[in-house]
Amino acid sequence: MSTLLEVTDLSVAYDTPNGPVTAVDHVNLAVAPGEFLGIVGESGCGKSTLLFAIAQLLRAPARTTGGSVVFRGQDMVTMSARALAPTRWRNLSVVMQSAMNALNPVARLSAQFADTMQAHGVRDKAAIRERSEQVLELVGIDRAHLASYPHQLSGGMRQRAMIAMALLFTPELVIMDEPTSALDVVAQRSLMLQIKELQQQLGFAVLFVTHDMSLVSHFSDRLMVMYAGEVVEFGSTRQVFDHPAHPYSQGLLDAFPSIRGERKALVGIPGTPPSLSALPPGCRFEPRCPVSFAECATTRPPLYDVDGVLSRCLLHDPAYSSHATTPTTSREGDDVDRT
User: Fold this and answer.
1) What's phi and psi for 286, nearest 5 deg?
2) pTM
3) Residue of 94, 65, 95, 71 whose CA lies nearest to 83
4) What does the alpha-carbon distance between residue 30 and residue 3 come to, in Å, rounded to a whole number?
């Protein structure tokens, strides 16, 4: 399988008065053409920062401190803003987290779509109008709403309008930063079905960030779980859901109800993620982990290959196999999609 996007050892830091704080720590991932890759984790774990680093949209005090982002054979980290401009939106587009903030509140949709196309050399007004109508209809919005201002649309319609704008040039990769976070569960489900349908119809790859594991359970091909700036589990979505290899992934799954099987009390993850400026010396999840042991507090685990899934947990190290006595709960056959 060819690779559309390859991220290697990517690190991002925020400059603070007390020195730089690493928010994304040596992340590696690859996205194939047409693939749907989900990235999940609690708020503050580095998901959105990772996306902005991939799209090269970081602003001070954030900066890339190492690694590469190779998209269509070019390392975007080393490219200037001028060199990146033709790639953005035409080959790679971004759907922001809050459409109400991302869209210009005092401009009609038609003007915002036209600005995007004109920035990439499309000057013919008839062509701009035709393409704008086409992409709106692709996402299920009547072309009449090109004359609407963002405040005249519902939250779901605004998010669809953002997706429509991202598809103006039929890019090969669409990056989505929690596009459903402000929507109710019915609108979330509808939007996710729309995204998946468009992906299958147009063939673009999706990099989808969310804090809600249930949202990507039936839509993503692979799933990457982030915690405190680093990857803790990465593999096939079905395999991660059926047999989570990291205690943090298990904790995220236990926080959502299943609609099948016996009724069980929801179990939350105690505590909060560590401050990125004062990380534990060993496993970053150790202070909250229900199956940690002494070595976890001092030994920083690498990523272990567990039946094709990468997991950053010492329980998978043969040297500590005697500690691996607590079985994880399988979600095999469960439907945890609460939407």
Assistant:
1) -55, -45
2) 0.90
3) 71
4) 7
